[in-house]
Amino acid sequence: MNTNTSNFDAAGPFADGKIVPNTKLEAINVAVAEARREATTEFFARIGRSLRTLFELPRRRAVRSELSQLSDRELADIGLSRSDLPHLFEEGFVEGHAAERAEIHNARSVTA
To answer: Which of 30, 56, 79, 80 is found 20 to 30 A from 73 (Cα to Cα)?
Structure first.
């Protein structure tokens, strides 16, 4: 006779680090707990990103200011144009810009 009064199976409440529910109510409770954990994780990740952005603002302003004082020729020498300056700190700018510059370089190499 099984004297285990728990709703979980005999293997225990955990299998591979997750709770294994035996009833629909337990399944709902597990799903709610996992959703809360994911929401909490995302919430704190957003706070972290926001704080990082806030702390980087003075440095970003200094870089933008310094670059805006360069001539168009000096900007071109480092692979930038004046129209790039507002987008320097956007996500994916560096990767996209590097790929764009590589395409231009390859096109010039083929025609030369």
So the answer is: 56
Helices (H), 1-112: 24-68, 72-77, 93-111
Contact 92, 82 (CB under 8 A): no
CA angle 72, 73, 78 (to 5 degrees): 95
* Rounded-to-integer distance, Cα 74 and Cα 81, Å: 9
Tens place of pLDDT per residue across the chain (112 aa): 444 444 444 445 555 556 566 788 888 888 899 999 999 999 999 999 999 989 999 998 999 999 999 999 999 898 888 988 888 888 878 777 777 777 766 776 666 5
Structure tokens at 93: 């700018």
Distance between CA atoms of residues 16 and 65, nearest Å: 53
Q: First and final CA of the chain: distance in angstroms?
A: 87
* Phi, psi at 68, each rounded to 5°: -70, -20
